[in-house]
Amino acid sequence: MEGKEEDVRLGANKFAERQPIGTAAQTQDGKDYVEPPPAPLFEPGELKSWSFYRAGIAEFIATFLFLYISVLTVMGVVKSNTKCSTVGIQGIAWAFGGMIFVLVYCTAGISGGHINPAVTLGLFLARKLSLTRALFYMVMQCLGAICGAGVVKGFMGAGQYGRLAGGANVVAHGYTKGDGLGAEIIGTFVLVYTVFSATDAKRSARDSHVPVS
Predict the structure, then answer these.
(1) Where are its TM segments located (predicted)?
(2) Do residues 137 and 53 lie in contact, with contact meaning Cβ atoms separated by under 8 Å?
């Protein structure tokens, strides 16, 4: 019996736990992550940096491509007499999700891959970026969206573009505008919450799965 206890004791010492969990996983300062400092409200030095303008250009191009592809997809479904001959609602969802997936991968290392003023506003309120950068991002995102929709209108013609309402969302029959507003608020909350969760400094290897989120 004593021999078996000795074997267990030696085995436990020989094969120590290789991946600490709980409090054992923390570093000496009590954290296993580095929390970045809050961004200053105004950072005039950014205006002299090429990376600042490069990030804005990335947001413009990403938003332009997102609106161009998504609006064309929606209008292609709407103008068809039968949904069976189009990609359908699921195709629209794949177009939106797929474009965001690709564009965030392309721009995450340049601008952070916001591609949405709501995301930029949320990150600004959380002191993740300065007011200067937030305003610049929002302006470039809006310009990209306008240009993307404008190119679609140019390709399809003003008449057809107007008949299809430019691929804009409308409140479905049986629902009020208040219902639509509530759905938009909840959807935007989930979007921004997901971005914050995926980019949290406490998460390990977060850079690889942010676009998937």
Answers:
(1) 57-79, 91-115, 135-156
(2) no
